[in-house]
Design goal:
Layout (H helix, E strand, L loop, with lengths): L8 E9 L4 E8 L5 E6 L5 E8 L8 H8 L12 H8 L2 E4 L2 E2 L3 E8 L2 H16 L7 H7 L2 E3 L8 E3 L1 H9 L3 H13 L21 H11 L5 E7 L3 H11 L23 E9 L9 E8 L6 H16 L4 H8 L5 E7 L6 E9 L4 H18 L3 H17 L7 H13 L13 H9 L5 H11 L4 E10 L1 H19 L2 H19 L4 H5 L19 E5 L2 E7 L5 E9 L8 H10 L10 H11 L3 E9 L9 E12 L3 H14 L5 H21 L1 H11 L3 H10 L1 H12 L1 H19 L5 E7 L7 H11 L19 E5 L5 E7 L10 H20 L5 E6 L4 E7 L5 H8 L1 H6 L5 H15 L5 H14 L3 H12 L3 H5 L2 H10 L1 E7 H6 L6 E4 L1
Parallel strand pairs: 3-10, 11-15, 17-21, 22-26, 22-27
Antiparallel strand pairs: 1-2, 2-3, 4-7, 4-10, 5-7, 6-7, 8-9, 12-14, 12-15, 13-14, 16-17, 18-20, 18-21, 19-20, 23-25, 23-26, 24-25
């Protein structure tokens, strides 16, 4: 790029970034003052982002509501939901927007040049020229509004963000995070809730909302980021001509203020809600929180990530172990939040008692003092450094584009200092510095200075209050009814009219010419070829190996798999426990903390999982294989150590250590409950499918609700159950971990195979050999239609069934149907009109289909919406342009860029599920050639799913009781 060609910008800094193989330029747009950061490399997955500093002055959630609202139409793209139109009709690899405590960012990514330009255009127009000034309805839909359907109805609040935050505020972990942030920074914008407190959101006026946009959404307050392989000059010229040159630089007071340190640690106590029949005993959260300098300190930013690992996060870490041994809480967690100006280090004891607060603080500080005096375990520090450096060098962010994650990390410093965007992304020198400090007292001095001597801290206690949600909902209902009764009849009629007007606005279809302004690609822009499947069947040391020859930059990704298909039904929850225990319990040669550190010093990590592979060639017979898998990644020269550690975990684990077993069960129970609260939609959908699907039943028994019930029972009755538990787990290891049950999936270049025979032979020698009885696993499915009551203010409403069971075949167009329903019919009726945060659907090759809502204020109404899908499909009529859009959106999901590890994983999954290249090619053709009548023909699929009438809802006790006729069983977790 030649910066001299760009007269509209001035170059402030130019830097090579060898750590991420890129060249970067820091620019300023001369006229508008916009900050611009370019990261040039050969990554085809291009990223654009525009962000703004958005410090909230109250807890009405205006930054969050704005983030939703600007994507609801703009000057050049006046359709009501361009965001959804892009989801349906672009080849994006990422498309979203995020609100943080101090910033709001709008990132997009795509590998297609034309598509990338389209995404940039829509997003720039959205943030700078949104339709919020012309349509108050956007604010009322996305933020909050009064809802009164008729004069006889109850007055309610509704709004997407309002309902989303009701869900967020139902989580005790969410409550704790917010209170810690608000308490530590009382004199700054961090004292306010940027996402919005549901009790405060209705105080926000439309005028305040517009003022916020006028103040902060200006190029002078913006952070523009471009990453990847593109013509940067062309993009910069376009940004200048189309948008930035229209603005003069102004002074925007958005600086994130520094909180002066406290002179003494403060204490804060707050309640969270549990269900009316839940116990308040052992349900308190105790937390110890300290502010750690600022995020502009390059070494400190990373050093405390290492300390978090060494002190707290790793199994067996001293703080975790001391608190567990002292019986303070059953799940010890922690975090180091360095995504804000003044980072926070936290130690959290979950499932504790409020009365343990003083001993909790005392124990934490005693451990820290001992570590300063006696020194931190050097191996733990080395493991922590290698753990983070391996991830930095590997740069595998799963489905998230690398450029997106780099951009977000740069904001951790750039937001607070215009001249320092690169200090954390260029981390190789920092890692070298931190390695040298291991043999000094550097880390001990950090503990002394920032944890023990630091008075800028808070002890936050979040305690349970039974029935708090029900009480608050009742108080809100009474307040709203009192307000309604204070209004004249004319004023009440006005509210009814406003409710109807909003619904009319929401239901009115966009004008065709407005929709056509949103650029889309053509079907011809999409390749008809499938991504290659890379499977080579080998036999090494007598073991079947499926080799995926892919360039991995010297890292070997291996997956050692043991067939678990014949584990008896009653033992399946124990299989889930075994998977959770291995790797975090003592072995013959290591204490569990030492084991974890040894693994992380030498490898990129070792983990266990249970996987399930449905045989798509035997769908009606419901044939599947379940496997116990140990996944590892390491540099080629470290693979022998990875195999040695796998052998240690599988064959040498001390399952008779009942003290540790009880600790793990308590932690497991806590983590499962957290998962149910944060991912209630996936939990409910799996449970609903388990009523008739053996494979879903197995998943539920090893990771879902039935698994949780077994874990909770064993923890509660541990003394009488521990001998049997040890015996079953020991027998399972002897049954499963044998060489005749083993196969290996290995992803690497050819060089990675060197020495593989010796490594596999060594592992085989450590495995069990005694003969065990094979028992066919017969799973008993039963329709239960359950409602699970929680203290939440929102629901997760799932309905499922199997269409192949009812004689309806699978077709590739079902992939398009997912996009159509999730971003058209369900989006419109469950989210836009119903006020839920989201709604998803899925249909797979083995005939399983489901609908599920996310953070939904409704229950019965959502079930009625599901019922309407058949009629919607039978009458499905759209333009050719719309049909093309749905197909492109579908292909965007299918053609996501893949990391080397994901390429190998995908190939292996297809191999295990017996999905052939021909099947995938057929499905791709069915998608690319689909017409409207193909979608109409899918009505019987949905009809079959609904006819199965399998229902599961996780949600507020009031709503579930209100609609109890829908359920066969109602219970609590």
């Amino acid at each position: 790029m030649n910066i001299n060609h760009l007269q509209a910008y001035e170059l402030q800094k130019e830097e090579n970034l060898p750590g991420i193989q890129a060249k970067s330029y820091l620019l300023r747009h001369k006229k508008s003052g916009a900050r611009v950061l370019l990261v040039e490399n050969d990554d085809e997955n291009k990223v654009f982002s525009i962000g703004f500093r958005t410090p909230p002055s109250d807890s009405t959630g205006v930054p969050h509501i704005m983030e939703h609202s600007v994507l609801c139409g703009s000057k050049n793209f006046p359709a009501k939901d361009p965001f959804v139109e892009l989801v349906k009709g672009s080849l994006n690899t990422f498309l979203n927007a995020m609100t943080y405590p101090d910033k709001t960012v709008y990132p997009v990514a795509s590998c297609n040049d034309k598509d990338f330009q389209n995404l940039m255009h829509v997003y720039m127009d959205a943030v700078l020229h949104p339709n919020i000034y012309q349509h108050e309805e956007i604010f009322r839909q996305e933020g909050w509004s009064y809802k009164l359907d008729s004069l006889d109805d109850k007055l309610e609040y509704n709004g997407v963000v309002y309902n989303e935050m009701k869900g967020a505020f139902s989580s005790p972990e969410g409550v704790l995070d917010r209170v810690v942030l608000n308490t530590l920074f009382p004199d700054t914008s961090y004292a306010n809730e940027s996402g919005g407190d549901p009790e405060v959101i209705p105080e926000l006026t439309y005028e305040q909302f517009l003022d916020f946009h006028q103040k902060y959404y200006h190029p002078s307050n913006s952070y523009i980021y471009l990453y990847g392989d593109m013509d940067m000059e062309e993009k910069l010229k376009w940004l200048d001509l189309e948008y930035l040159s229209d603005y003069e630089e102004i002074q925007v007071d958005s600086k994130i203020k520094y909180q002066d340190p406290f002179t003494e640690v403060v204490e804060k106590e707050i309640a969270y809600s549990i269900a009316s029949d839940e116990s308040e005993s052992e349900n308190t959260y105790l937390s110890y929180n300290k502010v750690i300098g600022t995020s502009l300190d390059r070494e400190l930013y990373l050093a405390f990530q290492i300390l978090d690992y060494a002190l707290l996060s790793a199994p067996g870490a001293p703080l975790k172990k001391a608190l567990t041994d002292a019986g303070i809480g059953k799940d010890i967690m922690g975090s180091y939040d360095n995504g804000i100006y003044q980072p926070i280090f936290s130690v959290i004891a979950k499932n504790a008692e409020k009365s343990q607060k003083d001993i909790f603080v005392e124990t934490v500080e005693d451990v820290l003092r001992t570590l300063v005096t006696d020194g931190i375990d050097k191996k733990a520090l080395e493991a922590g450094i290698n753990y983070h450096e391996f991830r930095y060098r590997e740069a595998d962010f799963g489905n998230y584009p690398k450029g997106l994650m780099y951009g977000l990390q740069m904001m951790d410093s750039w937001l607070y200092d215009d001249e320092k965007p690169f200090i954390h992304i260029e981390a190789l020198d920092t890692f070298e510095f931190l390695k040298k400090q291991v043999q000094t007292d550097y880390y001990e001095q950090l503990i002394q200075r920032y944890l023990l001597d630091n008075t800028h801290g808070a002890i936050v206690v979040v305690k349970p209050e039974r029935g708090r949600t029900a009480r608050m909902e009742k108080e809100l209902e009474e307040a709203l009814q009192a307000y309604k009764m204070s209004l004249s009849k004319e004023e009440q009629e006005c509210l009814v009219e406003r409710t109807k007007a909003l619904e009319a606005y929401q239901s009115e279809p966009d004008a065709e010419e407005d929709l056509e302004r949103i650029p889309i690609l053509k079907r011809e822009d999409i390749s008809g070829e499938i991504a290659p499947i890379i499977n080579e069947e080998l036999t090494i040391a007598g073991v079947p190996v499926v080799f995926h020859e892919i360039e991995t930059n010297g890292i070997g990704y291996m997956d050692v798999m043991f067939d678990a298909s014949d584990v008896a039904e009653e033992e399946l929850p124990y299989l889930g426990i075994l998977q959770s225990v291995l790797g975090i319990i003592d072995t013959t040669h290591y204490e569990y903390g030492e084991l974890f550190n040894e693994i992380n010093v030498h490898t990129g990590g070792i983990g266990t999982s249970l996987e399930l592979y449905n045989d798509v060639t035997n769908v009606k017979e419901k044939v599947f294989r379940s496997t116990f898998e140990v996944k590892a990644k390491a540099l080629y020269q470290k693979l022998p150590m990875a195999f040695e550690m796998i052998g240690e975990i599988l064959a040498e684990s001390k399952l008779e250590d009942t003290k540790r077993m009880k600790e793990i069960l308590a932690m497991l129970k806590s983590r499962l409950l957290m998962k149910f609260q944060s991912s209630g939609h996936t939990t409910a959908a799996l449970r609903a499918m388990s009523y008739a699907s053996p494979s879903a039943k197995l998943k539920d028994m090893t990771s879902g609700i039935e698994f949780y019930e077994k874990v909770a029972y064993l923890e509660e009755h541990f003394e009488e159950e521990k001998a049997r538990l040890t015996e079953i787990l020991t027998n399972l290891t002897k049954k499963l971990f044998r060489s005749d049950r083993m196969m290996i999936s290995f992803t690497a270049s050819k060089a990675g195979l060197s020495g593989m025979e010796t490594m596999i032979e060594g592992l085989k020698k450590r495995l069990f050999e005694e003969e065990t009885k094979e028992t066919p696993c017969i799973l008993h499915c039963e329709k239960k239609n359950e409602g699970f009551k929680t203290a939440s203010k929102v629901q997760y409403v799932a309905r499922a069934g199997n269409f192949i069971d009812q004689g309806v075949p699978y077709h590739g167009a079902l992939q398009i149907l997912k996009v159509i329903l999730s971003y058209d019919y369900l989006w419109q009726n469950v989210r836009v009109i119903g006020g839920a945060y989201g709604c998803m659907t899925n249909f797979n090759r083995i005939g399983e289909g489901y609908f599920v809502s996310y953070r939904d204020p409704n229950l019965k109404r959502t079930m009625d919406v599901y019922e309407g899908v058949v009629d919607y499909l039978e009458n499905f009529t759209v333009t050719d342009r719309d049909m093309t859009k749905y197909i492109i959106g579908t292909m965007s999901n299918i053609d996501q860029p893949m990391t080397p590890a994901i390429k190998g994983e995908r190939s292996m999954n297809l191999y295990m599920n017996r999905v052939s290249e021909e099947m995938i090619q057929t499905e791709r053709c069915q998608i690319l050639e689909a017409q409207q009548e193909d979608i109409r023909k899918l009505a019987p699929v949905v009809e079959a799913v609904l006819r199965a009438d399998q229902i599961c809802v996780i949600g507020g006790e009031e709503k579930i009781e209100e609609d109890r006729e829908l359920f066969q069983n109602i219970t609590n977790f």
